[in-house]
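Field reference: sequence -> structure
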Amino acid sequence: MVNLHNLITMAGIVLDEKKKREIDPTLTVLRVCVLNSANKSDEKEYANKKLKELAGTIK
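Structure field:
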């Protein structure tokens, strides 16, 4: 029979690994996009704002 503690530990490990594989790389790309769009003209201001919002939501 599976111990509840072992199940909770396993779920935590799975979530940590999923974060490393999926969320962390996505945040890195978003940060790069925000930095790149900040150096552009004012026409990119809306996109920059939305990228920052998205990065904040994912954190």
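Note: The longest helix spans residues 4-38.
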